[in-house]
UniProtKB/TrEMBL annotation:
Keywords: Amino-acid biosynthesis, Branched-chain amino acid biosynthesis, Leucine biosynthesis, Magnesium, Manganese, Metal-binding, NAD, Oxidoreductase
Domain of life from the UniProt record: Bacteria
Positions with biased composition (Polar residues): 353-363
An MF annotation (GO) of this entry: 3-isopropylmalate dehydrogenase activity
Similarity comment text for this entry: Belongs to the isocitrate and isopropylmalate dehydrogenases family. LeuB type 1 subfamily.
Isopropylmalate dehydrogenase-like domain ranges (all copies): 3-368
Region span, Disordered: 350-375
PROSITE patterns named among the record's database cross-references: IDH_IMDH
SMART domains: Iso_dh
The enzyme's E.C. designation: 1.1.1.85
Catalytic EC class: oxidoreductase
Name of the protein in its database record: 3-isopropylmalate dehydrogenase
Amino acid sequence: MYNIALIPGDGIGPEIIREGKKVIEAASNQYGLKINWTEYPFGTEHYLKTGELLPDSALKEIEDMDAIYFGAVGDPRVKPGILEKEILLKARFYFDQYINLRPIRLYKGVPCPLKDKNPEDINFYVVRENTEDFYVGIGGRFKARTNQDHLEVLRKLYKAKIQVDFNLEPEEEMAYQIGLVSRPGTQRVIKYAFELAQKKNLKRVTSVDKANVLTDIYGLWRDIFEEVSTQYPDIKTEFNFVDAITMYFIQKPEWFKVVVTPNMFGDIITDLAAMIQGGLGIAAGGNINPEGVSMFEPIHGSAPDIARKNISNPTATILAGAMMLEFLGEIEVAKDIEDAVEKVLSEGKVRTQDLSGKSSTEQVGDEIVKKLPKA
Ligand code: NAD
Ligand code: IPM
Ligand code: MN
């Protein structure tokens, strides 16, 4: 039996999580596996009603569970950043989920926007650092005659030669945000990427950065990549600048096997990578702490533009469920789910509007359940 925390969240979150839960239960049942779900209401409605985002009491409770299954948060009624930072990022940081693993795979039958690219050409992993970089939340915004402390912090941290009058006028308002790369934080994620390559018998690890401009933080990132790579002499390595890798993802996706990237670039390039595998509706991810509580979710957001219409694609969430089961050691159950997804996608009869179909969210979930092999 597994204890799973369920956070459906906002927008399409509840409808995709409903299908994910349905498929996980159906697949697990065949192996006599029981899932004990604890559902939490965190998200916009709960916040607007109670002012509560993700309380420490819930985090403490979840510490004893096996994993978190997460939909999405974000709602146009709430200023950007509140729910995203205080719910999603809070969980990633609290549980020190330092790896964000995002497999990129074009399934058979899924329309690919790249001309002449087939399933065998698009099949790689992005390992995104998940607790550092510009996500550490060190920053400040200050204007006329306020927050002089922030300016001091900025000067110290960046040794900035900023010549400004402390009595700023409102039109001189300023803001800063610090990106942080640490040796242990970088070592552990890069090591994970190499271990993954080794385990899956993949022969190349690509490192992403912008070391030609942000020379301090990504200079350190590069040094550590080089150091770690010496422990894996059989695996080829390369550096790509982040701007160039967006081009290569389109031009030669077949080149990539394992891509390891700092947090923010990882966020950006995985939405791009999702598109070459057929869109956000299919792209799954896991926020992983190999020794702690991990959290599995689609990489897309709450899609407020299509919420509550029962037309969103639950496939990414269902595949995230398979990743969760695999992570828990239920390899066969996970494989059954992925195989069923593959069948439904390759048949192409039941699919949602993002894949040019007419089926509902629920019909896709039901069809995947129908295609589960009998254990
Ligand atoms: P989004 O990923 O929600 O949507 C981008 C586009 O993709 C939209 O047109 C949407 O309709 C479509 N789309 C996304 N998922 C889909 C699915 N399963 N099926 C079909 N179409 C799908 O990104 P956005 O619009 O930039 O952000 C909306 C909100 O979600 C914001 O508040 C943002 O902060 C938040 N967000 C949350 C997460 C998360 O909780 N993990 C991730 C990304 C964005
Ligand atoms: C993602 C999302 C999040 C991120 C946001 C919502 C905090 O875009 O999971 O990709 O930037 O990591
Ligand atoms: Mn993102």
